[in-house]
Amino acid sequence: MHPASFGYEAPASLEEVFGLLRQHGEDAKLLAGGHSLLPAMKLRLTQPEVLIDLGRIPGLSGIRQDGDTLIIGALTTHTEVSASETVRNLLPGLADTASVIGDLQVRNRGTMGGSVAHADPGADLPVTLTALNASFMLTSAEGGRTVAADDFFVDFFTTALEPHEILTAIHIPLPAAPTRTSYAKLPHPASGYVVVSAAAALTLDGSGACTGARVVLGGVGGTPHRATGTETALNGQALTPEVIAAAAERAADGIDPHADSYADEEYKRHMAAVYARRAIEAAAARA
Ligand SMILES: Cc1cc2nc3c(=O)[nH]c(=O)nc-3n(C[C@H](O)[C@H](O)[C@H](O)COP(=O)(O)OP(=O)(O)OC[C@H]3O[C@@H](n4cnc5c(N)ncnc54)[C@H](O)[C@@H]3O)c2cc1C
């Protein structure tokens, strides 16, 4: 299918973007990698009158460490994240997540900012970024604000972003104590999107006991789901196979997964426990 006709703007600065957003209001859509927006336009699920291409604006992409924070620009591609030595060293679970998104073409064009702003319930990065306690920098003509991942994802395809705001960067805290991260995904065999996935970020003390756990599920609702029962069961414990297995069994506590044409609720609940266990095991095994 072809999209409905639309105008195209390629501003060179954020100020120009703000002016265009003021001019066109909700008739405009921001364009990053286009790998979610253009398919939706072709299906006529959305018909913006104007696309505002963020691709020529300097400073919106790149990966850098600033003290105890890893900062990733919104236009940084999935390939750049998965290939980054910095990300591989500091947060290998994030690099792993970016490396299993779609195919090479999708990873070469798709961006971190586009993925989280789109908030597809089958997307990978929102799950891991929630486990990593990331924050999102939202900028508008009026100034900026920071929204934590726990508050950013509101519902299916819905985030805390206002129509006049741009997501400019993602900030990920780097804890002082060693933190081990991982991501485990059951992909849909046709689309590659998440059926069920789990991300784990485990902080361990010198004795190997878990002093902080964030375990997050994908594919079980409209937004990433914190498996708080699992987190509680890990906290303060040495990560033995028995502790991990018992904690993972609690991953599905309180979830009411949405069924789809591929997986029913019971299957998703079962897979939530399986993939939570795999993610925790993989994180625990990381040096
Ligand atoms: C064949 C295929 C397979 C895929 N498989 C997967 C997969 O397995 N896992 C997965 O997670 N994803 C998958 N994707 C989606 C892919 O990761 C997209 O790249 C991503 O979801 C959107 O990023 P984008 O840069 O392409 O954003 P766009 O498509 O350009 O934009 C998406 C939405 O976000 C908004 N937006 C973009 N950037 C910003 C910003 N900086 N601030 C505010 N709003 C913004 C746009 O206005 C639009 O509404 C797949 C896509 C395709 C086409």
Q: Explain this structure to me?
A:
- The chain has 287 residues and is of the alpha+beta class.
- The chain has three domains: 7-53, Uridine Diphospho-n-acetylenolpyruvylglucosamine Reductase, domain 2 (2-Layer Sandwich), CATH 3.30.43.10; 63-173, Uridine Diphospho-n-acetylenolpyruvylglucosamine Reductase, domain 3 (2-Layer Sandwich), CATH 3.30.465; 179-285, Enolase-like, domain 1, CATH 3.30.390.
- It has twelve helices and 14 strands.
- It has helices at residues 14-24, 37-42, 78-83, 85-90, 92-99, 104-109, 112-118, 125-131, 149-152, 228-234, 241-249, 265-285, and strands at 7-9, 28-31, 50-53, 63-66, 69-73, 135-140, 143-148, 153-155, 158-159, 166-173, 179-187, 194-204, 210-218, 225-226.
- A five-stranded antiparallel sheet has the order 4-5-10-6-7. The chain has a four-stranded antiparallel sheet with strand order 11-12-13-14, with helices on both faces.
- Helix 10 runs antiparallel to helix 11 (241-249) and helix 11 packs antiparallel against helix 12 (265-285).
- The longest helix has 21 residues, at 265-285.
- The termini are far apart.
- The chain binds flavin-adenine dinucleotide.
- Flavin-adenine dinucleotide (FAD) binds next to strand 2, helix 2, helix 7 and strand 10.
